[in-house]
Amino acid sequence: MTAPANTEKVRRKPLVLGNWKMNGDVATAEQLLSGLLHGERELPALLAGVEAGVCPPFPYIGLAAARLAASQFGWGAQNVAHFDNGAYTGEVSATMLRDLACTWVLIGHSERRAYFGETDAQLSTKVEFAHRAGLVPVVCVGESLAEREASKTESVLAAQINGLCTALASTNERFVIAYEPVWAIGTGLTASPEQAQQVHAFIRSRLVAGSVPGAAGARIIYGGSVKPSNAQALFGQPDVDGGLIGGASLVAADFLSICRAAALRSIR
Ligand code: PGA
After folding, report:
1. Angle between the 193-209 and 228-235 helix axes, to the nearest 10 degrees?
2. Atom 2, ligand 1: which residue's CA is nearest?
3. pLDDT digit string, tens, across residues 140-165
4. pTM exceeds 0.85
5. How far is CA 63 from CA 60, 78, 164, 201, 213, in A?
6. Residue 109 catalytic?
7. What pLDDT, on the 0 to 100 scale, is given for residue 213?
8. Residue-range domains of the chain with CATH
């Protein structure tokens, strides 16, 4: 890895997003949301300097919107259609997510790429539709264990980023990248802070090379077994601008403590 660390003095507000995936039911969603609100009441300064939100399954986004409306937490979706509107049974459009006042939408999560065969071309279209609807696309990239072991991390990420540069350039600097090494997702294995930093700096350098406006100010967040015990070290790295949290976002106290770790980054 040769990419230099980000040395530019650009202030990037840390971002922590909870990716609930396909977990829970209405009762656990209510419980989790009230846990977040309780944490915010107990510690009103918790989210000072941090942006935080949850991405529930589609059926519970409206619930999250209702419960979190008066809070500092935002909400978003885990996926969006690569079609505008019309006869696409089972899909949810970017404008529908806007109607639910979503701020963010995850695009190209490795589970979507692996289980639903999402292609780079589809992801670019999703980024464009999301942006047009006023949503912030959170584009996920990452290498598999086999790719890392074969020293292909940089080439895999370069290909993923290159395929997205045109779409990202069209977002008027309103996008987020989530680096999620596939081998670290839900496995308990986490990239070390140094590994994460190297890759984040590399991703930023690819955005610059791809002439994506706002590359220096773009938030690149890390995902893959982030927990209260490792969040602070990860967020202490200069190019790790927050986290995309899976398992630990299902426990309100853990998610809140990860938000707190991100807040420490913002006051460094
Ligand atoms: P994890 O998931 O935190 O459970 O590893 C992260 C993600 O897939 O977004």
Report:
1. 50
2. 246
3. 999 999 999 999 999 999 999 999 99
4. yes
5. 5, 15, 32, 37, 35
6. yes
7. 97
8. 15-243+254-266 (3.20.20.70)
